[in-house]
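Researcher: I'm preparing a figure for a lab meeting and need a structural model of a single chain. I don't have an experimental structure, so a prediction will have to do for now. The sequence is pasted below. Please return the structure as tokens so I can convert it later.
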Amino acid sequence: MQMTGKREPSKPMRTLAKSLLLVVVVAICASLACGQTLRRPEEYLSRGLTRAKAGDLEGALNDINKAIEMVPTFASAFAARGSLKKAQGDTAGAVADYTRAIELAPGVAIPYYARGFLLLEQKNFDGAIKDFDKALELQPNLAIVYRNRGDAKRARGKDGDALAAIADYGKVLEIEPTNVEVYFERGALRESQNDLDGAIADYTKVIELNPEFADAYAERGLILLAKGLDSDAEKDFARHLELNKDGQEYLEQRIKYAKYLRDKKKSP
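Model: Understood. Here is the structure written out token by token.
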């Protein structure tokens, strides 16, 4: 059984910030029909993006600053600069630039998501959820936003947030039906809500999609153990240890705890 409470946003979600720059700018440019008439500010922005992709963040920032200087209402440039500032560790500056991009282009989803992602990293869950809500209102099929909104609700932990997060993870899986990580995370959340059959189904799906996902065997095995299906549980534990040879001590501790909880429930 799960022995942890609220969970932080996963590492893969945190590392998405590295690729957010191009996503932000491409999405805004598509929405605003950028580039149809080439002007010097767009040239500076284009060169800035090329420099950013090559790792020259200072050069990229100089170019994008120039684009903003030439056209102070250039929403795409503010969004791009926000991502650059994020990459440089200037979170407050990034939030300010995303906010300005939203003011200039309020009908574009991505700046809301980008700002929400930063707010999620800062544990401002209410602010993040508000931005994710707006992003999904504008663009309902953004799986990444459903995922992060689910993470934010899960971490916030208010009444009803766990079920709302499960629903958001379900939306991700409607859009990305082979997303192994989301099946695993939804399984953990279902387990925390005592939906053991739902959790088993999710962990089983993880194993179907990725038979070498070691933790899915451990988690499913612990639930089977709690349900009294010891033989099936042992098979899962054995497979987990085949894939994770260093995990025996930790797994034994969790098995011991799961048996303690099971026996406690049986006690009068």
